[in-house]
Each structure stands twice: as C-alpha cells, then as structure tokens.
Amino acid sequence: MSKSVSDVGLEGTVVPCPEPQRGSSCYPGSVTKSDLIPSSLRFCVVDPDGHPVDDARVWLSAKDFDAPVAVGDASGLLQLTDLPAGKPLRVWIESEGFARRRLEDLHLAAGAELDLGLVILSGGPRLRVQVDPSEASLRLSYQYPTLRNSTSDWNGPRRPLTRGSDGHFESPPLPPGLIWLEARAPGRASRRELIPVTASTPDIDLGRLQLEPAEPLGGQVIDSRGQPIAGAQVWSDLWPMDPVVTDAEGAFRIDDLPSAANRPQEVRLRVNAKGFRRVAVRIIGSLPQLRIVLEAARAITIKVQDADSKAPLPVKTIRLCRQIRRKGAPKMSVG
C-alpha cells in the first residue's frame, strides 16, 4: 500500500542511502555495473482535499543528469522512467495556483521502481511589487530548508514574473523557505531582495523598487601565450550570479554592477574555462579594463573496467573528490 509523503517533512521525503561500502554506488568515486541499470519513479499529485492535480509539471535533477519536464495525466499520476540509480535525486513539482514543492535525496535502486504514493501541493503567500524603470524584468529563486540539517540549499528552476495591467508584478504562491527576488534592467545595477517565507506568512507587498545606474566592467581572458580564450565564464561575487561568456577575442563585459557609491570596496571575480585552471581576481577601488591570464590545467587519464572480465565499462561521467577535514568534524569528500 502506498503511503502519503506529505507528513514526512517540510519539503518532501528522504529514502536513506545504505551505509556506504566500498564497491557500492553510495561510496564516493566508485562505479558499479548496477549504476548503469535505469530506475523509475512513480507518484500521484493531489491538492489538500485529495483531488488530483492534472497539470502538475515536474523537474528532476541528479549529479550529471537532468531530465526534461514531465506533465501529469488527468488522475495526477506521474511515472518517470530511465532515471539514474545510485545518485541522490531531487524532484520539483509545481502547478498553477499552488506553491512549488520539492522532494529531496530520493535514492533509486537499480532496475527498481520507487512509489511515493500521494504528493500534496498546497497554497502559499503571493508577492506584489512595482519596479522602476518600467523595462525591468523580475524572477524568483527558491532556497529550501533541507531535511538533513538546519542549512538551506539552492534548488529548482528560476521563475520569471510577468507585469500585470496595473504595472505590478505578482508571484505565484510561494513555498516555505528563503525566496530571492532578482530585478534587472538595461543600464541599471541588478538588485535582489531576500524574502523569508513560512507556512503562516501572509501575502507580501514590497511597494516600489528603484534600480540604480550601473557601472560596467570589461576585459579579456587569455592563455599563457597571450592567445584569447573564447567561451570562458566570468562570475562576479555581486548579484547576479549568472556568468558572462567571453567572445572569440576573449573579451567580456559585465553590465549590471553597482556604481562606486553603491558597491563594496572590493569586487571579486571567478574565471573558468575548459582545459584551464580556475582563477580568482580581486578588484579594489575603481573598475579597470582587465587582462586575465589562465594557466593550462593538468590532465588525468582514467580507465574504468569490469573487475572480473577487465572489459571496459561505458561510463559517461567520473566524479573526482578531494578529502577535507574541518576541526572537530569527520573527514568528508567533496567534488
């Protein structure tokens, strides 16, 4: 008999992974033949009264895996196949008129189907805001409380907001957690507002937000021989967190940084390009034209094969981890 997962936790259910053993899919860095066998996931989406939600949209994500959006049928049923086994799977569910729901850390057994039973969507507070200038665009990012500890985690696709006929932006119902409202406009510094939401939060009216003029930052990314690097990604530690990408000449331009009067004294950039080592840049004071040099990365060759037959295994991705230990805490692997 299927069980409802609505009362397991604030944002979903956890199916614990077995205690890691060497050679199992839960052990960091290991790959087994069972990881290559696809699994499936099944659940029904209903409203608080138990009526099926027939237009629920679902996103799934795991390490090195993203599934296309799926839509439920008239009975609210969603059955998702060809999912990876041995990886923590995260699922986001949303439907018009309901707050987005997240199920986290679902572990699928190879070749098996995990039946979650009923997943309940509920309402939530809505957000209203006006933004100057009028050509500004808004979107929401969701930061959910996790079930494993008291920290929060970024999750789910960002959602753009549309302006109503009265000039206000209005959000869909918001789930519990931390909501980031991102506002952007050409020639203006991007702005973000942090909005805590609980189950008892009423509707929120932020009034009018004003976007200030921006100061651009540009430069070029090159290799150690002075050749431009196309396709390098450049991030700023100021909002927004989206990278800009260098063109064929290695040039980049960040258009929405705050002016000197409205930004911190120090600005940090991160630069990343395939085949090169990542680099961090600190800028203090005015924003110069930058010339950033990346060094070539070292390559590691790895062969994955069957332990018995020594035949090569068709593994798509290998995760490399490093061991770290914080004072008073056990050793952990991070990728």
In words, what does this structure look like?
The protein is mainly β and 335 residues long. The chain has three domains: 33-120, Immunoglobulin-like (Sandwich); 127-210, Carboxypeptidase-like, regulatory domain (Immunoglobulin-like), CATH 2.60.40.1120; 217-294, Sandwich (Immunoglobulin-like). Helix content is 0%, strand content 41%. It has no helices and 23 strands. It has strands spanning 39-46, 57-62, 65-71, 77-83, 89-94, 101-106, 113-120, 127-132, 137-145, 152-161, 169-170, 177-184, 191-197, 204-210, 217-223, 233-236, 244-245, 251-254, 266-272, 279-284, 290-294, 322-324, 332-334. β19 (266-272) and β20 form a beta hairpin. The two termini are 38 Å apart.
Alpha carbon gap, first and last residue: 38 Å
* Tally of distinct domains: 3
Question: How much of the polypeptide forms β-strand, as a percent range?
Answer: 35-45%
Widest sheet, order of strands: 3-2-5-6
Note the run of SSEs as H and E: EEEEEEEEEEEEEEEEEEEEEEE
Tell me the CATH architecture of the largest domain. Sandwich
Secondary structural class: mainly beta
Give the mean pLDDT.
Answer: 79
Estimate percent helicity.
under 10%
Task: State the name of the first-level CATH class of the largest domain.
Answer: Mainly Beta
Radius of gyration: 23 Å
Name the CATH homologous superfamily of the largest domain. Immunoglobulins
- Large-scale geometry: flat
**Strand tally:** 23
Low-confidence stretches: 1-36, 146-154
CATH fold-level label of the largest domain: Immunoglobulin-like
- Counted by DSSP, the helix tally is 0
Largest sheet: 4 strands, antiparallel
